[in-house]
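Readers outside the structure-tokenisation community will struggle with the description of the input data as it stands. What matters is that the chain and its backbone geometry are given together, residue for residue. For illustration, here is how one protein appears when written out as sequence plus structure tokens:

…
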Amino acid sequence: QVQLVESGGGLVQAGGSLRLSCAASGRTFTSYRLGWFRQAPGKEREFVGAIRASTGYTYYADSVKGQFTISRDNAKNTVYLQMNSLKPEDTAVYYCAADPVGQLDDYSYSYWGQGTQVTVSS
């Protein structure tokens, strides 16, 4: 089992950047597929992207490709979501998730963080 704790959310002006972090517990971080999702008010949860901790391979939703970057630091058991050129429509609660199996384009995850709020003002 793994526990996930997100941080780094906040209020930012349009055009700005934020980096979210997701710290994972446990000693098997490198065996996991780690994903980022977001949920805006009144909308369904949306897949943002994923990374395989062992290889660093990434996969992104078309809506954020070129704008967001996922990376990881295996020594710190942490995955990051770098968000650039933020727009008001990027406002959402951002969640990280982990699963020991599956492909990067699988949207099913076993473990979830509590989420961190990102608000982009116009």
The first strand starts at residue 4 and ends at 7. Residues 20 and 31 are 21 Å apart (CA to CA). The chain has a mean pLDDT of 96. The chain is about 0% helix and 50% strand.
